[in-house]
Write a structure and sequence with these properties.
Number of strands: 9
Strand order of the largest sheet: 2-1-3-4-9-8-7-5-6
Largest sheet: 9 strands, mixed
Mean pLDDT: 95
Radius of gyration: 16 Å
CATH superfamily: Class I glutamine amidotransferase (GATase) domain
Helix content: 25-40%
Strand content: 25-35%
Number of helices: 6
Shape: globular
CATH topology: Rossmann fold
Number of domains: 1
């Protein structure tokens, strides 16, 4: 498959997802909005992965390309092809599909648990009943019309959603590796202030390799689900 990646800042790349896609021999191409905000042709890509970034979905004045990106996401959603949004990417999908994006009452940064919200509903991805994942987000969203909430946490009611068989949005970072977590802690260290769900850089970097292995395995399962043949039928 030809997978297009929307990347908003240089330090929030694919992380573990790159290993997954390479192992599966998918073709990867990038729209690097921080360097050159060029959009691909809808017809030439089979799936879209939208990464995170420190900007808001509403920061059109500072990042004029956001309007074009959101419109592309809206049109891509209508194709029925698989689409995954992570952090800002999930918020951009919500915004493109007429849902609200707004500041969450609490920022979540570091390792915190999420719990499943779909209560065993058929035809949606099944998260574990509870798993500790890596967070770095301050905004959240309402659900797009027809979407199902997949997960929540104590600090954020909407941690993940699914729309149809082909769209999933995640607030948290299952793609995180020790290297990507270190890059976030370095570039966004000003956000590491005292807060109920904000860990220090030292706490974040003390995470054992097993934690990353667990979330990366879950990332593989999400991608297996999204890129399965039945999800790729437009």
């Amino acid at each position: 498959m030809h997978i297009q990646v929307f990347q908003h800042v240089s330090f929030e790349g694919l992380g573990y997802i790159e290993h997954y896609l390479n192992q599966a021999q998918h073709q990867i191409s990038y729209s690097e909005f921080f360097a050159s905000p060029c959009l691909p042709s809808l017809e030439h890509i089979d799936a879209l992965i939208i990464m995170g970034g420190p900007m808001s979905a509403h920061d059109h004045a500072e990042y004029p390309w956001l309007r074009d990106e959101i419109e592309f996401i809206r049109r891509f959603a209508a194709t029925g092809k698989p689409m995954l949004g992570i952090y800002l990417g999930a918020q951009l999908i919500a915004n493109a599909l007429a849902a609200d994006v707004y500041a969450n009452p609490e920022k979540e940064i570091g390792w915190h648990p999420i719990s499943t919200s779909n209560h065993g509903k058929d035809q949606v991805f099944q998260f574990p009943s509870c798993i500790e994942v890596f967070h770095w987000h301050g905004e959240t969203f309402s659900l797009p019309q027809g979407a199902i909430c997949l997960a929540h946490s104590q600090g954020c009611a909407q941690q993940a959603f699914q729309l149809g068989r082909h769209i999933i949005g995640l607030q948290f970072h299952l793609e995180a590796t020790q290297q990507t977590a270190k890059a976030l802690a370095s570039h966004c260290q000003a956000e590491l202030v005292k807060g109920r769900y904000i860990q220090s850089a030292a706490e974040i970097m003390a995470a054992a390799p097993e934690r990353y292995a667990a979330i990366n395995q879950l990332m593989s399962e999400v991608l297996d689900y999204l890129l399965a043949p039945e999800s790729c039928q437009a």
